[in-house]
Amino acid sequence: MGGGLCPRLSSSWENKETALNDAVSKTKVGKYFMLDARKSTFTKELRAGTATFLTMAYIITVNATILADSGGTCSAADCSAPVNQTAGPECMLKPNEGYQRCLDKTKSDLIVATVLSAMIGSFAMGILANLPFGLAPGMGPNAFVAYNLVGFHGSGPISYKTAMAIVLLEGCAFFIVSALGLREKLARIIPKPIRLACAAGIGLFIAFVGLQVHQGMGLVGPDQSTLVTMTACSSTNPATGECISGKMRSPTFWLGSVGLLITCYGLMKEIKGSMIYGILFVTLVSWIRGTAVTYFPQTLIGDTKYKYFKKVVGFHKIHSTAGAISFTNLNTSDAWLALATLFYVDMLGTTGTLYTMAEVGGFVDGKGSFEGQYTAFLVDAGSTIVGSTLGVTTTATYVESSAGIREGRQNRIDCCDCRLIFSGIIVFYAALNERASVGYRAIAGDSWGDDDEGGEGYRLGEHEGGGAGFHHHDSNAANLLCSKWDCGWHWIVRCSELV
């Protein structure tokens, strides 16, 4: 039979792939992206861009949920009130149908805003800076704005529109500093061993967070005696994450573990697209209803998500967050302190991440510089300006870019691939499941994540639970969250440690 069916199919596929890569490399697109010069191929770049997108796709819902916790542009005027009565400010902190409808619309706006800012930033980084880095609204600054500045449902000292004005000013200041070359000089004074240690330090930190309850696989949870302990429980306290019962019996943990093992095995065997296969496996399994690991449990929330999922295609126009900027109440001590905090975090955090990814990709030379860094700094800062006009917080380079780098990407076409996928998410978002990237974050994820304890509604984005697992209707939710994460200072300490 000539050697069997599988070898013939494999050989046929490889021949077609080679023919496609050769054809693309000879086109204007291939020459523009210098595929041959960089010893890369079209299919390799597509795999790399897809891997980057899949590992950072969780930010789409998580960022929107965190910022929606601030209430956005919603106010007491949106609350439902009895006939011949007027709703007071307290309606925003209690269950209210009208206010909840406004929050749902705001969250939809923020989802689109997150996708657009990530799409524009990633596309600009690939085309202008020729670097394989993905950009999106960063985790940390969004929580600082939502819970410290604006406060839970607008209970803080600064309004949402003023907060976006602060982010806009911070982005402009950051752009000026980058344009003057000061950011590049700051990065150069960091010794090379420290820069190399950044990659290892960030990686260990992210791996730890990727294993935690509320942010990752749920293997690590809080303990009053030892601070942290092994959990992976079937039932946890939604507010603290402490184990209630069923240690090491969490179905979602074991599903995530299988996805993680698939990815690790692929990396060990150097299988092409191994970063993608584990994520796809977890995603497909999570879509099946009637299981302990389903993303669509037989609950009101699960039914709502499944109904939206079945739509597959949809489009939402930004109504409330785009251009929601006000400079009226900017001249206050709280506003200036927030501006200084965000600028400090952006200056050190995103600069450190950029250099870390450059080190991982092997782009940094002996002098501590990398090709396209000046433009990369400008794109990074400019993306924050664009994001603020859409209604989201600081846009930054993502550590998840290392997924694509690991897949072998070397130039900018993969960022365009990542950008095209983000653009597709605007209409196909209903079919996404951010849970799937949790396993990867245990390898090289992000500083925040998501939680889904068996579909019980205690993950970011559910009406019964939110704010990293805290009850929405708990009046102390914002304070509890800040005490757990130290909000913006969590990032400030982290960035200080990098330098």
Automatic annotation (TrEMBL):
Localisation per UniProt entry: Membrane
The record's principal subcellular location, in a coarse class, is membrane
Transmembrane intervals: 110-131, 162-182, 194-213, 275-296
A Pfam entry, by short name: Xan_ur_permease
**Family in the record:** Belongs to the nucleobase:cation symporter-2 (NCS2) (TC 2.A.40) family. Azg-like subfamily.
Give the keywords, sorted. Membrane, Transmembrane, Transmembrane helix, Transport
GO molecular function (one): purine nucleobase transmembrane transporter activity
Q: Which InterPro entries does this UniProt record tie to the protein?
A: Azg-like (IPR045018), NCS2 (IPR006043)
In Swiss-Prot or TrEMBL terms, this protein is called ADENINE/GUANINE PERMEASE AZG2
